[in-house]
# Entry
Amino acid sequence: MAKAAYQKRRRVGGRSARVRDAVLKSAFELLIEQGHERFTIAEVAARAGVHETSIYRRWGTPNALLVDAWLGYFDDAIPIPDTGTLRSDLITLGEGGASVHRSPLGQAILALILVRDEHALKVKHEYWQRRFERLRPIFDRAIARGEFPPDADPIVLLQILIAPRFFRLLVSIEPLDDWPIAEAVDRVLSGYAPSPKRTAHRRRRQ
Amino acid sequence: MAKAAYQKRRRVGGRSARVRDAVLKSAFELLIEQGHERFTIAEVAARAGVHETSIYRRWGTPNALLVDAWLGYFDDAIPIPDTGTLRSDLITLGEGGASVHRSPLGQAILALILVRDEHALKVKHEYWQRRFERLRPIFDRAIARGEFPPDADPIVLLQILIAPRFFRLLVSIEPLDDWPIAEAVDRVLSGYAPSPKRTAHRRRRQ
Amino acid sequence: MAKAAYQKRRRVGGRSARVRDAVLKSAFELLIEQGHERFTIAEVAARAGVHETSIYRRWGTPNALLVDAWLGYFDDAIPIPDTGTLRSDLITLGEGGASVHRSPLGQAILALILVRDEHALKVKHEYWQRRFERLRPIFDRAIARGEFPPDADPIVLLQILIAPRFFRLLVSIEPLDDWPIAEAVDRVLSGYAPSPKRTAHRRRRQ
Amino acid sequence: MAKAAYQKRRRVGGRSARVRDAVLKSAFELLIEQGHERFTIAEVAARAGVHETSIYRRWGTPNALLVDAWLGYFDDAIPIPDTGTLRSDLITLGEGGASVHRSPLGQAILALILVRDEHALKVKHEYWQRRFERLRPIFDRAIARGEFPPDADPIVLLQILIAPRFFRLLVSIEPLDDWPIAEAVDRVLSGYAPSPKRTAHRRRRQ
DNA sequence: GGATAAGCGAGACGGTACGTCTCGTCTTTTG
DNA sequence: CAAAAGACGAGACGTACCGTCTCGCTTATCC
# Structure
């Protein structure tokens, strides 16, 4: 795994490691404090007490540094709920997401969205694949409880519920507070109710 | 109204108007061709045959120009459907959206999302408010046909259906083709079916 | 002569004259207050309550306006002395010059020196010709008193005595206070003393 | 040692030195060719084959560059004479000055006079102090020959003789050819003749 | 344990874009 | 119709940031 190789290479405490850690830490803090607009290599270097050139040598571009900082420090802020019912799990998830966006961490998320070079796109794609994978247990439990059809794609449901948050933040520019989380969950969940009439949509995603 | 006064002052065809139109046209074309990254005032000025200073005088910043160009030229690219059923209208809408994002116009839309200064945010908010207002007739007709409950907020439904497109484009970086438009419409629409069991959610939005 | 034509055109009291006077007045004040560096047409126009274009129409360039303002308002600040002896006259003259350069009016003088377009050069040349002509009576009186040889050129003497002031202000950048006015007058005047040994230099200037 | 040789090589042929030299050379040439009016950073950069930004980084303003170029390239163009008599030395000096002003180098001198920011003033003050200091040997020799009183300030005499040249160039706008160099020297020198009657003025300058 | 490779600090430079300032001209509007 | 008002063309200035390069030195690694 990447981390082991990294550990071996870095010999915790060496100068390189010190530089690397200081830069990533300063980068992430700067990202949260000032947002994407003011995220400059010069400022990161100054905060980290490191020369700009060292950053260019390692990361090459501000965006690569930004993505690296994001990856290193952005642990999944929203825990995976297990409340006993799917409806409640999904509502908890939605509320967690909204609260993250109200915290300063939200800056970092938005910042990353603005980065659209190839590397960042790849990183983000993989992040969300992992994220959805880690949410799958919610649906495994729901299926076991008979709350969710085994042949439906949970990712579609998740994206339907999660997407409006980003839509309102990024596209339509509306406050998140207005969004009726529970209503949305209920409306959408109806489409997954175990009804004899609705057997139409099978899993279409691999 | 402001527009009338402006029209009166500008005597369509005057030098100012010529400059303004040439700039906006060039700006929008550049935006579509090259995207946000390569959208520079110098290039717009060169294309429009206008001096850079004139652009700075009028718009001040590249972003302001970008927003103005977008407003002036981005007419609603997705027509408002009227196919006879709500389900069919919504699917048509979704397919229209997907096709727009596959066209070069999609560049312009993404470009605007990356602009997050105060003015741009205001413009985008207002654009989407109008957009949703103009889609309301779809639901008026559906209500008349008994396909949609009169006390539900159609905007919530619309955002649920539209948002995943942007989520996949901007956040999770997935192709739009994978998205099951019809399935999503059917799932969500179930939550609005005139069922005796589900009368819970009243309009909560003003 | 230009002045006559101007008088005819100006219609004392008309709008044009009002504009002209306001502009010249503001221009001269600005010149004295802020010096040549900050002398801009925009500022003059603002102070005079006149549109910039009006100034451009009349004067064409900032320098022309500056020269005109200088001409109109810079009356000879140093009176022509008549103290009874040539030595005393020249010392008085020198002290007058030094005191002018210590007053805000000195700004205006320096400002004009920095203007070196053709028109300004011509104006300045003529100004100094007139100035020297007006100082000639000092020497007429001195000749009558036997203090100055009738065949010497007084302008040479005047320039020798006046020039160091400008040299120190413009070239060697030294304070005027250090300059020994009386000593210089005495030293130079020795060369014009009616001595049997020195009859060499006749007038060589036309 | 290797390091010393290396240092030496680097200072002479390093990139920075190359840039610096090219810029100063181009700047001085431009100054002489085109005068102060057309002295722009862009043109200097183009001539030196250097990027404009590099000039801004080093010198900040056009004036600072101009002054630096002047300092670096304006060696004393007028040699210090030693002809055997003070009178002859001073006449030679005056003729040298006049001839410099007739050469293209005169452009550079006038250009510098127009620059009156703080730095330029300081540089010019120091330049003339040095210049006068370097002319002092003329008077040491004259004193030894009994041609100049040991207690008089030679700088006063020098300024009296040099100043008219600048006065006519800058202030009264008259040709230099008209100026009677020898007459002026003779007149002024009379004031320094070792006469028993004239013991008035002692050195007042430190 | 000494040679050697890798990385860092320091400083400049090339390059792109931005935004400002002033001058001078041109067009539009108005009295 | 002439002057006022307003916008534009032109060009220089100065700034910010990005990314590259060279050099000298320190640290880590390897034989």
In short: Chains C and B do not touch (no CB pair under 8 Å). Residues 40-42, 52-53, 56, 60-62 of chain C lie near DNA strand E (CB under 10 Å from a C1'). Confidence is low (pLDDT under 50) at residues 1-13, 196-200, 202-206 of chain C.
